[in-house]
Write a structure and sequence with these properties.
By secondary structure, this protein is of the alpha/beta class. It folds into two domains: 207 residues, Aldolase class I (TIM Barrel, Alpha-Beta Barrel), CATH 3.20.20.70; 260 residues, UDP-N-acetylmuramoyl-L-alanine:D-glutamate ligase (3-Layer(aba) Sandwich), CATH 3.40.1190. Helix content is 47%, strand content 14%. The chain is built from 19 helices and 16 strands. The strands form two sheets. Strands 1-2-3-4-5-6-7-8 form an eight-stranded parallel beta barrel, surrounded by six helices. The radius of gyration is 23 Å and the shape is globular. The protein starts with 9 loop residues before the first strand and ends in a 13-residue tail after the last helix. Bound molecules: ligand 3NM and magnesium ion. Magnesium ion binds next to loops.
Length: 496
């Protein structure tokens, strides 16, 4: 696993003491936490003898490897070397960074704890791969913590790092749980410094009655915490949203692209795609009114954006409705790579290869939420794309992290083209926020659905007709508020 690809979002630090683990089995707790969405694991065990530590680390590594998640070992560099896991985490009183690097080689991850800007800069300059910042709040998990610095202390370190030109990944640790994660993330971030990349927890997951649910809850909060970064990135760059879309939604989609901060171009002639792909935007391929000519254009444009490294959003409208569309989906999937595939249940099932027959382009649902989550995850794994499966509860998955978004309003289902314009919205997010396509997709989704909720309850909205202009207004208002730093609207986000 490339070090640059590591996701520090929900960082689980283990503890084997009865006070925290109780009588549970550590490996099972870690496995449940990984199912819930933990993105990196650190085996921390101050008490076991070496033989036990190596045995436990091996068992944990078997599990983390299955989930494609890195395993680090706290402090005991020799254990990490013997097990061959992905790296170590060292505190200020542990082995010196240079010595650990010599033992581990250049490809392993070494994280360092820092409580002050001096410690953080020193670790950065030595070459650390990430920093664990803390202690945020006093915690009974670690009784010998030296300095309790709070979210404001984290913020000072982040500002210090960014003014020294460092963009090293950071997580914070100490007393973080589901109740305070959102405020810790918000209070510790300060422009122009980069936000925290994640939160590290011990007891919030290891001591939880349901570690999978605890991990899922934290993941939702970490992802929600990044949403403003995505919307601001769109506002700062006004990325091109190149739509190759159907006849029905051209005007609506262009207005939505503008409202969310993008710059729309509706261009169906693929000979233009190579030039457009160089402008730093993203492409939407929407299959809504498929024709032989259109399909050829889609393939050519897909390949042009792939060659330029630009994101591509695929909207397989009505994919299961006809055999022509089912074949078009197969052809497109084998012609290039998509960043995001967005569709309703029937469409995503068709992408999966199931032979479902959709009634026209409408959505119908027969799967349970957890079946929808596994479907999205499987398609994400097989295609390498982020899958956005829309419905009353939306599911977003990149094959590792799978989230449910429970926002939206029934008016979205009573107006034509809302699904298509969601694809356009997501394209703007993907264009502006390349570092994490899943977070970009979730940001597009919650911006879109919360704007719909706000529009639907306005006094001037009396039905689906008056909803449309109000919805465009609210998309624009939510974006403007976010850019000004007012993110109160995000309290409505239901991401889990
Ligand atoms: N390191 P909990 S605080 C392992 O400040 C560890 O460096 C800390 O446990 C530091 O999430 C800590 O249960 C324990 O509060 C964090
Ligand atoms: Mg230590």
């Amino acid at each position: 696993m490339a070090k640059s690809k590591v996701d520090y979002g929900v960082y689980l630090v283990t503890d084997s003491t009865p006070a925290i683990l109780g009588n549970k089995d550590l490996t099972s707790v870690v496995e449940a936490a990984l199912q819930g969405g933990v993105t990196i694991v650190q085996y921390r065990d101050k008490l076991s003898d070496r033989e036990t530590a190596v045995k436990t680390a091996r068992a944990l590594h078997e599990v983390t490897k299955r989930f494609g998640v890195p395993l680090l070992v706290n402090d005991r560099v020799d254990v990490a070397v013997e097990v061959g896991c992905e790296g170590v985490h060292i505190g200020q009183d542990d082995m010196a960074y240079e010595e650990a690097r010599k033992l581990l080689g250049p490809d392993k991850i070494i994280g360092v704890t820092a409580s002050s800007i001096q410690e953080a800069l020193k670790a950065c300059e030595a070459g650390a791969d990430y920093l664990g910042l803390g202690t945020v709040y006093a915690t009974s998990t670690k009784k010998d913590t030296k300095s309790i610095i709070g979210p404001s202390g984290i913020r000072s370190i982040l500002l210090g790092l960014s003014s020294a030109g460092h963009s090293i990944p950071t997580v914070c640790i100490g007393g973080i749980n589901g109740s305070n994660a959102t405020s810790v993330l918000a209070e510790s971030s300060a422009a122009p410094a980069k936000s925290l990349d994640g939160i590290a927890v011990v007891s919030a997951i290891v001591a939880a009655a349901d570690p999978a649910a605890a991990a899922r809850d934290l993941l939702g909060k970490v992802v929600a915490g990044r949403v403003p970064d995505v919307i601001k990135a769109v506002a700062a760059t006004t990325p091109l949203s190149h739509n190759m879309t159907n006849l029905v939604v051209q005007n609506f989609a262009a207005n939505v692209a503008l409202a969310v901060g993008g710059s729309p171009i509706m261009a169906n002639y693929a000979e233009e795609a190579a030039d457009l792909a160089k402008l730093g935007g993203a492409l939407v391929i929407n299959m809504g009114t498929v024709t032989p000519e259109g399909l050829k254009n889609h393939i050519q444009a897909l390949q042009a954006y792939n060659a330029a490294g630009g994101p591509v959003v695929f909207d397989p409208v009505g994919a299961g409705a006809t055999s022509i569309r089912r074949n078009a989906v197969k052809t497109l999937l084998s012609s290039g790579k998509f960043t995001v595939i967005k569709g309703n249940e029937g469409e995503i099932q068709t992408v999966y290869g199931a032979s479902v027959t959709q009634r026209g382009v409408d959505s119908a649902s027969s799967l349970t939420i957890s079946q929808r989550a596994s479907l999205a995850k499987s398609v994400a794994r097989s295609t390498g794309a982020v899958v956005v499966l829309t419905g009353t509860t939306d599911v977003v998955s990149d094959g590792v992290r799978t989230l449910r978004v429970d926002n939206g309003h029934e008016f979205l289902g009573r107006v034509t083209g809302t699904g298509c314009t969601l694809g356009t919205t997501i394209s703007a997010m993907e264009a502006a926020f390349r570092s994490d396509p899943l977070i970009a997709a979730v940001a597009g989704m919650v911006l879109f659905e919360i704007a719909a909720e706000r529009a639907a309850v306005r006094d001037d909205v009396r039905g689906p007709g008056t909803f449309v202009p109000a919805f465009i207004d609210e998309l624009s208002a939510v974006r403007t508020e976010t850019v000004k730093g007012d993110v109160a609207w995000l309290a409505k986000a239901k991401i889990e």
